[in-house]
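**Sequence, C-alpha cells**
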Amino acid sequence: MGSHGTLNTITPCAACKLLRRRCAEECPFSPYFSPHEPQKFASVHKVFGASNVSKMLMEVPENQRADAASSLVYEANVRLRDPVYGCMGAISALQQQVQSLQAEINAVRAEILKHKCREANLIPSSSHLALLSSGAVSIAAPPPMPLPQPTTAADYNTISDENVTYTLDNKYYLDN
C-alpha cells in the first residue's frame, strides 16, 4: 500500500490483460503492446501464440524489437484476412499490380512513339509497335551513335540526310 492507502499498481499491457495475468515490470510484451490497442496483441496471440511471440521478441536485438513486434502485428493481421496465402497473397497481388502498370506504361510509350513518328512523317511497322507494347523492347533512347567511318575520302560525299535511315533502336545505316 502507498502512503495514502492506495495500491501502487502498473496498468497491464494488452498481452497481460488478454492473458488475464499480472503485468510485471519486466514483462516482455509491455513495451510493444499498449493497453490502448488490445486488438494488436489479440491478433498476434491468435496467429502465433503468446509463448512463441515472447521467444521471437527475445531472439531479436533489443533495438529492433519494436520493429519486430510491428512486423508480427502486420503478418498476423494479413494471415487473419487471408488464412491460406497470408503475406504471400499480398505480395503476389502487388507484383501483379506492378506488372499491369508496367504493361500500361509500355503501351503509353508505344503510343507516344507512334505519335512522334507521325509528326516526323515516319510510320513504324506494326511489328515494331507490337514489340514495344509487349515490353520486350525498351523505348528509352540511348545516346546517338557516331556515324561509321568511311574507308575513303570519297565516301564522305555520299552521306546525306536523304540516304541515312534511322531505326527504332537508334541504329542507322546508309541506303545505297
Observations:
- The first strand starts at residue 164 and ends at 166.
- DSSP finds six helices and two strands in the chain.
